[in-house]
Amino acid sequence: MQETVKKVLTGDFNRKKALMFLITALATILVWNLPIDSFGIEGLTVVQQRVIAIFVMAVMLWLTEAIPAWATSVVIIFVLLFFVSDSAFAVMQGSEGEYGKLLDYQGVMACFADPTIILFLGGFVLAIAATKSGLDVLMAKTLIAPFGKRSENVLLGFMLITGIFSMFISNTATAAMMLTFLTPVFKSLPANGKGRVALTMAIPIGANLGGMGTPIGTPPNAFAYKVLNDPAGLNLGIGFGEWMAIMAPMVIIMLFCAWFIIRKMFPFSQKTIELKIDGNISHNWRTIVVGATFFLTILLWVCGKQLGVNANTVAMLPIAVFAFTGVVTASDLKDIDWAVIWMVAGGFALGLAI
């Protein structure tokens, strides 16, 4: 942290990012203005060349992190609208048919309200409500209890619980929550032992593996889920439950494999661990509402296809219930990871353009 601050103060950090941004800009301008024949693609239009240039820009900005990932997505949408859409500057559109087919600007803007975005919002709202009501603490205490006090079993418990949570709550939020629960556990472990390393590693590994279990576990899943079910794409009609039926067993197997590897690499010197998960649990009607909504939402996500309701539609259930009952207020919406929403929307816009 001190090294980062030092870099910022001396200007090294900003200069590096500025250099990466300049290189990206030059590469984008170069691809944008290359002779069309140089691509070796028969029938390539001006609009298609511009989309290739925008793709190059997006990839380089995401890889170099010259600007934040969500900001890259905003830039993608801006450039598409102003330079490649049918609402772009007149000089960018050319005469009819001269530059090729322009993007529908409404389609680009609709990426902000793509059904998969609503799916993510539903997951974020569930996480906020669970934390606000203390349901996350109650679930953690209940789920960890069967694993007892044996150190290796506690490690397995944390991995499995983290994996399960991250299937329905953002894997990043799950990791942050579970690391908070681990803080009091560390106090009971030897400072020079490897047990602390094992437990710490269990959280991100469990969150990453568990995140693959459902379409809402992590942003890449949402991209895949959209493409698999897009009527204009593969149109496979894969439901939330079908995804879980394949991925959840695989996740469980990988979690057990990871547990075996971690406990071998970082063996515990202390055989037992005294667990104490601290946190406030609200005992009122709102907690009941959150618990019931949480259960019903997951049930409909798993079985909704048989009832004719898709996962994206189900995601509106917790949003509507928590808004109506006041469980989630306008100020709570600030806790939503809007950067992820913007990043996903930008990815959808780029995919639409390509």
From TrEMBL:
TM ranges are 18-35, 47-63, 70-92, 112-133, 154-182, 243-262, 283-302, 308-329, 336-353
Q: What's a Pfam family this protein contains?
A: CitMHS
Query: Can you tell which superkingdom this protein's organism belongs to?
Result: Bacteria
Gene Ontology cellular-component terms for this entry are: plasma membrane
Q: How does it sit in the membrane?
A: Multi-pass membrane protein
Q: Where does it primarily localize?
A: membrane
State the Gene Ontology terms under molecular function.
phosphate transmembrane transporter activity
Residues folding into a coiled coil are: none
Location(s), subcellular: Membrane
Q: Is the keyword Nucleus in the record? A: no
Question: Any idea where the Citrate transporter-like domain is?
Answer: 59-353
Query: Keywords, A to Z?
Result: Membrane, Transmembrane, Transmembrane helix, Transport
Protein name in the entry: Dihydroorotate dehydrogenase
